[in-house]
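Re: the 382-residue chain
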Amino acid sequence: MRSRLVRGGGGASGLLVIDAETGKRVCTRAPARQRPLASNMKLFTTATALARLGAESKITTLLKTDGGIDRNGVLHGSLYLVGAGDPTLGTPSFYRRFLGGLGTNIFQLKRQVREAGIKSVTGRLYADDSVFDRRRGVADSGYATSSEIGPLSGLSLNSGYSTASAYSFATDPALTAAGTLGLALRQAGVSISPTIALATAPPFSTELARVESPPLSAIVNTTNVYSDNFFAEMLIKLIGARFGGAGTTASGAKVVQAFARGHESGVHAVDGSGLTRSNRASPAQVVGLLRSMRDTDVGDEFIQDLALTGQEGTVADRMHGTAAYGRCRTKTGTISAVSNLSGYCFNRSGRVMIFSILMGSVRDLSLAHLEQDLIAAEVASY
């Protein structure tokens, strides 16, 4: 395994393989040296999210009002679309096309407004994105929107795209979401000003309608299986908002680091997705997290939310014809000169093996994948 590791990833690579039950080390190479995680960072983000928030938890987007409805169906006041950091909020045409049907239908709010008997609104529609800060990206892009990830916002629609066709990113995701809802309301016969603006819902405002996200387990599944950077970055801000005192990447990263330390691991977290090169951990730390997660209440869910080799997501076309085919749950990770693969293998012998391959000086990505797949096959045969 060690020779394959160096052939595929160069000298700046590390490896650790253990027996999950006993913790016995089967193969190692520089297991304690931290290396760039790339998308293996998502293992830490999603483990923290599942454990802290709960697999069945949902994220609620609210439509609130500061007014009242008279007998003629006139709402004397304004509407506030209040985001809570749901990465799946969108239109059915978008999430059915791009997210395999995983989404929160913003148009359900329109139906609830009509059911409340509202025919017109004297005020306007405001977008409240205050649950998160307004940094649109991560350190890798100077916290601005990049080609790798849609703009981050506490109130985002269609993964940050400006339209359901996913042609370009929105300038202001919250205004795009509110604008989409406002147009839908007018098309449904509700008279409301087309002028929208950013504002925080007043403390005295009341709930008029709500939509809930799919369970967190489904969001984590998409994050890991398809390595969705937008989902991962929204999750780390959500973790920060719920447990770190602020809806920022930095606050979420501190919570993730603390979680790792409490679960036989450690990580230097800078963002949630791994886009920034300074996200680092060692193979021993990755393996420690994976082993510890098996003993948590969400352990089974966490494992099932990783891509099945040869069949799903980023490893759908890999490991066919090897002992690892259909027997390992894995997370890939790729940035410039870095290629990683970590996860669990469930062997015919009955053993459960945990491994982490962190290749830090890759010159040929295809060769790196080939050697990783052969290492995984050996792990699955042990």
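The CA atoms of residues 5 and 371 lie 7 Å apart.
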